[in-house]
Amino acid sequence: MGVWLVSADVLAASRFVTSPLIETVNALGVLVARNPQPWERDWLARHSQAFRDRIKTDPFSAALAGNKLAAGTWLPVDLSAPPRPGDVTFEQELARVRTVPPRVAKFDLAQSAGGRLPDALDVSDPAGAFADLVQWIWEHAVRADWPRRKRKYEADIISRTSVLSQHGWAAAIGGLTPDVRWLGNGRLQFNVPDGRPLDLGHGELVFIPSSLRTWRVAWEFPERFAVIYPAAGMLASPAVPAAPEPLRRLLGPTRAEILLLLGEPISTTQLTAVTGLALGTIGSHLRILLDAGLAERHRSGASVLYRRTPTGHQLLGHSDPAGSASQSARPLT
C-alpha cells in the first residue's frame, strides 16, 4: 500500500474534513502509547489513570492496549472508517462501527496484530467491544474538548485549502507530512515498506487533520478513503495562548490574545477559526492593532495575512524573528 492510485475525478472531488470519531480513536492511541504531543501532556495526565482503571475491568480493552494496536500507523480499518457525507456527530460515526460483522472485525484485528488474533480479542462482537471503549473515551476525555480541537483543525483546513487554491494538490498534499507525497500522474505515495499500489477507483478521498505525531490511513473499501495527518504548527496548539497580564490590562484581554497569535502570518478567517470570535470582531481588533503600529498586513495571492510588527514583538517582550526584513516590508494601504 505504498502508493494510492487516484484518478483526476477522485482528486477533483477530494476534500478536507474533521471527524470526532477519528479524533477519539487517535486519543485512544495516545492513552495507550503514552507518547503525547507537547500540547496533549496535561490532557494525558488528567485522563490516564481513569483509562487504566477502565481497561482493568475489560479483558478486550486491556488486550487492545497491551498489543498497542491503537497506537500504530495501521488500525483495524473497518473499526476506524472515515466519515461519510452528512456525518456531523460522533454518534453517527460510531453507529456504523457497531454494524461491522464479527468475522470482518476479527480479520482486521488479526491483521493489525501481525496475522494472529490474540485470544482476548476473540470475542463474539469485537466491533461492539471496540465501540464501547471508544464511546467511553469520547464521553470521559474528548467530548468536552472537541469544540476547541475542531476550531484548530478548521483553521488548519482553511490554511491548506488556501494553498490548494493557489498552488494545486502537489503543494497541498506535500505539506501534510514528509512521509506522504503527491508524485503526479495520479499517484499518492506513502513511505511504507509495502510498495503494492492500491487503486481508489471511483472512491471518495478525504484528508482529516488530527493531533497525531505522524500520518495514518483509514478506509471503507471501496467507497471511501482517508489520509489522517498531523495538524500544522501553532494552529494545532491546545488553546489560544495567554498573553501577559500587563499587556491584557493595556490592550484588553481579547486584543492582547490576538496580538499574541500574530507571531506568524495568519488570515482573518484563520483567526476566526482559532479563537471562535466573529469575523467582524476580529476585524475590529485588527484595525486597532494596525492603527497602533503593532500589526501589519501583506497580501499573499488572494489572501491578506496579518502579523506583528517589530514594535508588537517588543511589546510582548520578544525579539523580532524576521529582523530587518519585517521592518522593510511595506504594509498594504
Question: Topology of this protein?
Answer:
Layout: E1 3-5, H1 8-12, E2 15-16, H2 20-33, H3 41-56, H4 59-66, H5 90-97, H6 102-112, H7 126-142, H8 146-167, H9 169-174, E3 180-184, E4 187-190, E5 197-199, E6 204-210, E7 216-220, E8 224-230, H10 245-251, H11 253-261, H12 268-275, H13 279-291, E9 295-300, E10 303-308, H14 310-316, H15 324-328
Parallel strand pairs: 1-5, 2-6, 6-8
Antiparallel strand pairs: 1-4, 3-4, 7-8, 9-10
What would a concise description of this structure say?
The model is unreliable at 319-333 (pLDDT under 50).
What percentage of residues falls in helices of 4 or more residues? 40-55%
Q: What is the average per-residue confidence, as pLDDT, rounded to a whole number?
A: 84
Order of helices and strands: EHEHHHHHHHHEEEEEEHHHHEEHH
Using DSSP, what is the number of strands? 10
Detail the poorly predicted runs: 319-333
Please outline the major beta sheet. Answer: 4 strands, mixed
Order of strands in the sheet with most strands:
3-4-1-5
Compute the number of structural domains: 3
What distance separates the N and C termini? 51 Å
Strand content: 5-15%
- The general outline is globular
Work out the helix count: 15
Secondary structural class: alpha/beta
- What Rg is obtained from the alpha carbons, in whole angstroms? 22 Å
